[in-house]
Amino acid sequence: MIITKIEPQRNKKRVNIYIDGEFAFGILKEIQYKYKLWENTEIDRNYIEDILIAEQQAKANDYALRFISYRQRSKKEIQDKLTKEGFDNKFIENTIAYLESHRLIDDLEFAKSFARDKINLNKYGPQKIKYELYKKGISDEIIDEVLDEDDTEYTRALKLAKKKLPTYKKDDKNGKYRKLGGFLQRRGYSSDCVYKILKELVK
Hints:
Blueprint: E1 3-8, E2 14-19, E3 22-28, H1 29-34, H2 45-67, H3 75-84, H4 89-101, H5 107-120, H6 126-135, H7 140-148, H8 153-164, H9 173-186, H10 191-201
Helix pairs in contact: 2-4, 3-4, 5-7, 6-7, 8-10, 9-10
């Protein structure tokens, strides 16, 4: 089999390959250069299979790189996204290894950044942060390590409770106790922390 024609696609990073006068496949230019594909080059079916595998792997890598360009992602988020896009497990595993080797994903750093944002921006408590990290596939060991560094739970919850309490001014003591406690629990604060704050504020 002979490559009889190579033409550029509208996407300047890609080309179309024609074999024996007929369109065969489209690939990235980097794959073309890597496999030394030029007009009048003779190739066989095994070589074509290697090329198409490399093309699919490059697609998976490129998709993952674009996915993480918007914000940090956990390993599971990337795996789930690539699975949803229809990539086979072998390509997903190779992409994860590629990203890790280039230090583009790190679940510990992701978890630290995620927790920091939820603490500072959303005023979440540790239980809610733990649940959100768990959903993103972060290991228990990393979650525990990250949350052990949070020593501001009580101060954060107290500030949040003081701001929220006036909205219950029409309620009696029991109503305030129940509503404020439920609010803090939904935000992910521990039972001990919530009890301590209710005891201090609801009198």
